[in-house]
Amino acid sequence: MRSLNQFLVPVCGVALVLSTSVARAQEGSIIRDAEYRILERQHGDRWAAEDKDIDVKLAEFREKNGGKPPNILYILLDDVGFGEVGMPDLDVVRGYSTPNITDFADQGMSMMRMYTEPSCTPTRVAMLTGRHPVRTGFDEAKAVPEGEGLADREVTLAEVLSENGYATAHIGKWHMGDIEQSYAINQGFDYAEHPIHQQAQLALMNSTALNEGHVDGVDLRLRSTDLMLDDTFRIDPYAMVYGTIGEKGGAIREVHMEPGQKFSQDDYVAMGQRYKQSTLDQMEKLAKGDKPFFLQYWPLFPISFTRTDIEQAQTLNGGPVAEAIVKVDGYIGEILSRVEELGIADNTIIVIMGDNGPFMEFVDKSGQSDRIYRGGKTEHLEGGVRVSAFVRWPGMIEEGTRVKDITHVSDLFSTFARLGDGEASIPRDRIIDGVDQTALWLLGETHGRRDYVFVYEGFVLRSLVKQQYKMHLPPPGGNPILAAMYDLYKNPREDRPQDSIRIGVGFGANFSLMAQRHLAMKELYPDMPPGHGPLYGGIENLRPETKELVDNILFAQGLTINPD
Amino acid sequence: MRSLNQFLVPVCGVALVLSTSVARAQEGSIIRDAEYRILERQHGDRWAAEDKDIDVKLAEFREKNGGKPPNILYILLDDVGFGEVGMPDLDVVRGYSTPNITDFADQGMSMMRMYTEPSCTPTRVAMLTGRHPVRTGFDEAKAVPEGEGLADREVTLAEVLSENGYATAHIGKWHMGDIEQSYAINQGFDYAEHPIHQQAQLALMNSTALNEGHVDGVDLRLRSTDLMLDDTFRIDPYAMVYGTIGEKGGAIREVHMEPGQKFSQDDYVAMGQRYKQSTLDQMEKLAKGDKPFFLQYWPLFPISFTRTDIEQAQTLNGGPVAEAIVKVDGYIGEILSRVEELGIADNTIIVIMGDNGPFMEFVDKSGQSDRIYRGGKTEHLEGGVRVSAFVRWPGMIEEGTRVKDITHVSDLFSTFARLGDGEASIPRDRIIDGVDQTALWLLGETHGRRDYVFVYEGFVLRSLVKQQYKMHLPPPGGNPILAAMYDLYKNPREDRPQDSIRIGVGFGANFSLMAQRHLAMKELYPDMPPGHGPLYGGIENLRPETKELVDNILFAQGLTINPD
């Protein structure tokens, strides 16, 4: 937003007036950004007609399903970008294959133009809230404890579905904050198992990885402490909280860590296997219950950097992440088999997808690469925000299809809310970016309801996507006529910028209006701050080293709360 | 070769002695480069056993096929690199799909690691002679008349198969020279229709393309002639010979051009449609004959640059080449349907592939891009020499398979020679680079017989590929320890060079020995000069403007031959 201030000044007032009147006209409805309303005005009649047919279809499904909406199983892979799983034509490019995900893709629909946010936390926030993370204020969880997280005020998909009769559970990576209000059990999940932090702690700063030198500065054996006047600046990763388990309304406990324990790659691998096993167990329990369920499995793998635990590469690629992608494909195979065994394949919608592009910092070691789209994690380039994404719902979604329609990860919120009969629970007091893509799923290609994406890096709007075009936003004061524009089909790697004159007279100006409309709406519905609170609040069994860490952090933050 | 002279000096003598003795031991056999013999020594026993089984299989096929070996239909697409056809997961990346080639791929085997030479002429020379073009001296046909071509002394696949009872025909692009000995009918084809030159003349310098400004310097309307002391330096494209038709032993005639005619995009499109129609007609004729046939269809499309002839894009990409890829996919669909109608699907091996990467000079206009592997036509990078390649032989080659084994386009010569019962006709007085890959086709993945590729740009050896590694050769005097090396699975775009120490101690030295062995063999079997002769020799109906052009060229070459 800041980078656009100057660029916006001339017409911001006009855009604001327009937005205000349109927004008021929709009071009572879900509040939409301008870009969606522009499409709705042109296609609303067709959409309404389609929606009637879809409602009939969904009612028929519920009738056959004992009056219940479908189960939802959502599998989100960490740092897996476009073309890194499934897509067997790329096996030979990558040097490994993922047979289970490939089979899954054949049984459902491939959303070939799925956009995420460029990093783990923002993608997960967008999926669960249906909003660009910048609106929630929580656009990135740090690798160190910070006392920040997804705010209580945000309404998650788990809350929407819970309100509508779903049993909900979350297993695996969470990465939504280290404060009480942000834990999964406090964001709508009945049951949750998850680490508080992310793989920087779990996979890069574990004792095995330190021995292999993946993160140099943490390993004090190779650093003189002569300059360490501030002993608390360099965090001890082992003092941070690792895995937790909890139930809605109850306490949350750290598990599988003893005081003094140095978390190793073995512990990381064991944690990953437990999450897979817990997913199987939870799914079995949920399948036997009366309620429809919403189960999230967010594996730790494929993020893995150590070599000590690898005996022999199973792939031509041989990178630790590549090897782990094949392993997690095996996990997914087990879960899909269990779905069959439990007899819930036909009444369970399953989505499998990545959360953002590869971490380019580690690509040569890890075995990942920006093989098709340029760029990776943290970047607004297509390689950062395009992922492989597959959805299966036998009998409802045509199998073996690939759709070119644009989707954004926030659309899953709105789509699952509708399919779970929870549309009425979507809040009406804030902008919802997620578009209901039920029509795309049930009616197929060309029935998507989005032709645009706003691409943020953190709180900075960096790129605009509309149809086949993408504009990298110019720096403050930059004239959009000379902004770098790309035709994504002719130049998918965004490495040969064209100015808007060459792409088409008026396009640069239209892109700048698109940004203005989007930002002007924020005057009515401002971006909010993230949730703040005491670090690790509500975790009842902090280890002594953790208590010391908490004490240091609260002191540094000027908070007087005593963690004991 | 020149760039390696210094790099070679130290051990060249040793390598030569080694090569000499090995080569002598194989007198009477096909002469192989050192790299192949190294593999043969390690796998020869297994290969011999496999070959016995394969011979039984082939004998069974011939028995069922009236004693005849299979027909061969070879479709070679111009400037179509890896991932530009078939591979439906990439449709959404490219913005177009090729349903006929995709279906074809599903019915056969995808050779996922097919290497070509980096340009049209050398790929075609390698395929037809089984030799790196540098050995034939004919490594690139110029865009202007030059009096050069594939030498008579080279033994082509058409000659090998003709000798063994095949009827042969070539339709479409040829690009093997503008002298009599180089025309298809003088290189083993019973019947041929082809232009003498290539798309620089046909698609870039046609009157429509000149109006659109694709080639600036040729259009004299926008150039002052004040500096033109030498009136013959800038060639009149319309004076060059266009399409020809001829039969073995007969004359060759230019067709569909009148004196004074200015070849247009309409003429180019009509020529392309005629070649498709002639392929259908020839195939019908050949299918009804007694002999097995070898038919080449080398379309002019997808190379196409003009816009005047496009009414409305059929694809999201909209580039003229992208549009033409879809059109030529339609042509291929017609040809494959005709194969079915003629009842020859089961006894016809069909290969469809590209000849090199996209012409990067035109990518933003054309709609092509180096979407996966970096680089394009003329370059030793994977994007220049990796192509999509598919082979179908119902009942003999397992359908729906993808193989990761390395193949080089010269292997088609040796493989088709074997399948066409013509192995005995492969010459024994020169190095044959093509490896017989029948085992790969009939037995499947991991049965390939090549783990290396020498990548030339023209006569310069630029890269060495071995297994998953690639070395970009250092400049003269450069130490291979610091040469740029790539793990092609971890870094398919060759954009993050690693030195050989990081890839593995000894690898740099082993790569340099690999180059030395290869070059040392040339002391025994030196690279030969190309064929030379009078421009357009043997064409009986040259237009007046062509005669004038020939007169100028022969004068400039110091030849006294009168073209009349």
Structural description of this entry:
- The structure is a homodimer of 564-residue chains.
- In chain A, the strands form three sheets. In chain A, strands 1, 2, 4, 5, 6, 7, 8, 9, 10, 11 and 12 form an eleven-stranded mixed sheet that branches.
- Helices cover 35% and strands 15% of the residues of chain A.
- The first copy, chain A, has a single domain (35-455), classed as 3-Layer(aba) Sandwich (Alkaline Phosphatase, subunit A).
- In chain A, helix 5 packs across helix 12 (320-341) and helix 11 runs parallel beside helix 12.
- Chain A has 19 helices and 17 strands.
- Residues 1-26 of chain A have low confidence and may be disordered.
- The first copy, chain A, has helices at residues 5-8, 12-25, 34-64, 91-94, 99-107, 120-129, 133-136, 157-163, 199-204, 207-211, 265-288, 320-341, 363-366, 382-385, 411-419, 438-443, 500-503, 507-524, 544-556, and strands spanning 71-77, 109-115, 148-149, 167-172, 191-195, 243-247, 252-254, 293-298, 348-354, 386-387, 389-392, 401-408, 452-457, 460-466, 469-472, 484-487, 531-532.
- Chain A has 564 residues and is an alpha/beta fold.
- At the A-B interface, helix 4 and strand 2 of A face helix 4 and strand 2 of B.
